[in-house]
Amino acid sequence: MKKEKILYICGSLNQTTQMHQISNELKEYDAYFSPYYSQGYWYIELLRKVGLMDFSILGGQAKQNTLKYLRENNLKIDDEGKLNDYSLVFTCSDMLIPRNIRYKKIILVQEGMTDPENLGYHLAKKYNFPRWMGGTATTGISNAFDIFCVASEGYKKLFIDKGVVPEKITVTGIPNFDNCEEFLENDFPHKGYVLVATSDMRETYKYENRKKFIERAVKIANGKKMIFKLHPNENFNRAKEEIDKYAPGSLLFYKENINPMIANCDTLITRYSTVVYIGLALGKEVYSDFDVNALKNLVPLQNKGNSAKNIAKVAKDFLEKTNSSTVFVLDKNSIPRYRLIQRLKARKRLARIKTKSF
User: Fold this and answer.
1) What's the burial of 47, exposed, middle or buried (CB within 10 Å: 0-12/13-18/19+)?
2) Would residue 176 be called left, alpha or beta, if left means φ above 0 and alpha means ψ between -120 and 50 degrees?
3) pTM reported for the whole predicted model
4) Could you tell me where the DSSP H helices lie in the chain?
């Protein structure tokens, strides 16, 4: 008897490792993995093909990191999910819902912190602009999935407030952020410093005053030893030059694991990074562009690393109890929706013609 197949749509390295952990708890199913993709969005596909989406998880370094991880871990790759008919699809984001999964059973898994609710978010929510305009702030608002596995009760409330159907949300915790205590045992040689976790905002075409950010961090440190951990997607040479200029004498790390660094620091300074939750879970002094008191209510469940197992149980129960495919909530920005609207208008015109003819 052939195993049922599950497709895991990955994204950033964090999202990819989350999907891998979930698949390890579903060994009775045949697992295939794909980098994030945009099938069915012709304009996104065009931009991707000419390299203009390389700043995102659709291409560039993020996609290469995902493929490298999948190959190194001997995971089966089905780029864009074209090889098989899947019983279930896990996806790391509903910013885009690829055409070939729109009538599949879909489980969305929260990656981590969501972006601030900017103009793009409000345009997407109120006027049906493309969700990618609002970044991860739009997570969940498509409702084009069967189940949404989220990090905590605080996030469940936040997503309901955004308009996600409450019945679709289940609190499972999220892999990579559910057992922060394990990071306390490490061999990182430094202790008792101020850790500054920078972002890749500029690389993703968002404005950041890096000079102001560094100067604020220096002020908070007040003479204490400083360590800067750069985002893996950052322009290293530019960032190093700025740190050497505005925070001379600071230590700089680039692609090393940040978790031990957070465990050994006294103070953590971030902007919009999910790593802030590790600091809060470990009781560190934390600075963020978000309201820290609000963040405390959103901290992912600390369940000793059982989030992947919880998500897998949700998936098994769903597959065993449900035979029919998901009723896809049509993506308001998709070509299929446009065609559906045209068909409905044509039917109305035909009905009016028939009415007049009698």
Assistant:
1) middle
2) left
3) 0.85
4) 13-24, 42-49, 60-72, 119-127, 153-162, 210-221, 236-246, 258-264, 276-281, 292-296, 307-321, 335-356
Q: What one-letter code names the amino acid at 121?
A: Y
Token duo for residue 8? 């895991």
Task: Going from the first residue of the chain to its last (358 residues), give the mean pLDDT of each consecutive group of 10, the final group possibly shorter.
Answer: 91 96 97 97 93 90 94 98 96 96 96 92 93 94 97 97 96 97 96 95 86 97 97 91 97 94 98 93 95 95 97 96 54 45 52 50
CA 200 vs CA 87, 95, 142, 232: distances in Å: 36, 19, 26, 8
Rounded-to-integer distance, Cα 15 and Cα 214, Å: 28
CA 182, chain centre distance (Å): 23
Other Cβ atoms less than 10 A from the Cβ of 23: the count is 21
pLDDT at 30: 97
- Residue 343's Cβ-count burial label (10 Å; 0-12, 13-18, 19+) is exposed
Q: Give the number of other CB atoms < 10 A from CB of residue 284.
A: 18
Domains of the chain listed by start with CATH number: 5-177+302-339 (3.40.50), 180-296 (3.40.50.2000)
- Residue 130 amino acid letter: P
